[in-house]
Amino acid sequence: MAPSPRTSTRQDATALPSMSSTFWAFMILASLLIAYCSQLAAGTCEIVTLDRDSSQPRRTIARQTARCACRKGQIAGTTRARPACVDARIIKTKQWCDMLPCLEGEGCDLLINRSGWTCTQPGGRIKTTTTDVESP
């Protein structure tokens, strides 16, 4: 009589199903980790692109794009020279210095036309930041 297809005399026959379930468990955990890591926590930002142009002497032009997951009433802005979620009122009123955009020890001043701000270091070096925010 021929052996039943369900029984096997192979030694690795019992290891194959457990290895398969372990493999799928690992794949599910890995995909969940990838999905979770691509999500930003509420109230946080990350820099997506950063371009620097130093072609002009004594001047560097930097452009950056940030991705933020802001809470209700907040919008992407800058705090301590890093992307951050700030109160939306600051952006609407263009009171840029209220979001504390400069590093500690630097002074913040609005540009005359409110298109941005300057950060003045104690040594006199000035960093100017302009925005693309249009008037309301």
What does this structure look like?
This is Chemokine-like protein TAFA-5. It holds the Pfam family TAFA. One of its GO terms (cellular component) is extracellular space. GO terms for molecular function: G protein-coupled receptor binding; receptor ligand activity. Keywords: Membrane, Signal, Transmembrane, Transmembrane helix. The chain is an alpha+beta fold. Helix content is 21%, strand content 33%. The chain contains two helices and seven strands, in the order αββββαβββ. The strands form three sheets. The chain has a three-stranded antiparallel sheet, with no helix packed on it. It has a two-stranded antiparallel sheet with strand order 1-2. The longest helix is centred in the N-terminal third of the chain and has 23 residues. It starts with 14 loop residues before the first helix and ends in a 6-residue tail after the last strand.
Per-chain topology:
Elements: H1 15-37, E1 44-53, E2 61-69, E3 74-79, E4 82-87, H2 88-93, E5 107-110, E6 116-120, E7 126-130
Antiparallel strand pairs: 1-2, 3-4, 5-6, 6-7
GO molecular function: G protein-coupled receptor binding; receptor ligand activity
Family: Belongs to the TAFA family.
Keywords: Membrane, Signal, Transmembrane, Transmembrane helix
